Amino acid sequence: MPFPARVVDELLVKCARFCCLCRQHKGQKMEIHHIDQEADGGENTADNGLPVCFDCHADVNSYNDNHPKGRKYRAKELRQLRDQWFKLVAEGKTGGQQSVVLTWNAPAPPAPLSQEAEELLTKAANVPGVHAGVISVVDNVLNEVLSISPGHREKLYAPDDARAAQRYKAALEELEDRNLVSRSGQVRNLTSAGFAIADELLKRS
């Protein structure tokens, strides 16, 4: 299978569309070579991708193990050549007009959830039956209290505990901001992403 588009984009930006072997700018005449072949278990990941021009790609693929002639490119060598070139591109040391290039900025991983947000997710996901994934905001004379359905049986803090109330409400907003829960009146329902993260948290506990 081919590399995903996001992997191709990442690699082409990192090499500035220079071939990592002949180090010539090739523009559209570029391909991504599997360093470890798919038939041998190689994955379609950036670590396994080598941006090369048509000619160098043909050269890498042309070696015949049954009739060896010359010296075959080895996986370790290909990765070192690629990474050396990526470094030169990132430092603007490729020379000529191509010395100013964009560098690939991988998206930052999301910040970890707060302890209260994790508790909300895991407790709601653990409820059996049709009430799974439901978090309710219960009106109280003194305050609003978050509870896990059904029946509002498990309140997460006492109505007069203002500090806990602020922490859990912030946690609920945190889950909403990350689209891990959806709002329906006074009820929040875990989204599919919320259930997925809750399942991962439950596996760790």
Structural account:
This protein has helices at 5-15, 54-61, 75-90, 115-125, 162-177, 192-204; strands at 30-34, 49-53, 134-139, 144-148, 154-155, 181-184, 187-190. With 205 residues, it is an alpha+beta fold. It has two domains: 5-99, no CATH class; 115-204, Orthogonal Bundle (Arc Repressor Mutant, subunit A), CATH 1.10.10. The strands form two sheets. A five-stranded antiparallel sheet has the order 5-4-3-7-6. Strands 1-2 form a two-stranded antiparallel sheet. The longest helix is centred in the middle third of the chain and has 16 residues, at 75-90.
Concise synopsis of the structure shown:
37% of the residues lie in helices and 15% in strands. By secondary structure, it is an alpha+beta fold. The protein folds into 2 domains: 5-99, no CATH class; 115-204, Arc Repressor Mutant, subunit A (Orthogonal Bundle), CATH 1.10.10.
Tell me how many strands there are. 7
- What is the approximate shape? elongated
Overall SS class: alpha+beta
Overall tally of structural domains: 2
Strand order of the largest sheet: 5-4-3-7-6
What is the topology?
Elements: H1 5-15, E1 30-34, E2 49-53, H2 54-61, H3 75-90, H4 115-125, E3 134-139, E4 144-148, E5 154-155, H5 162-177, E6 181-184, E7 187-190, H6 192-204
Antiparallel strand pairs: 1-2, 3-4, 3-7, 4-5, 6-7
Helix pairs in contact: 4-5, 4-6
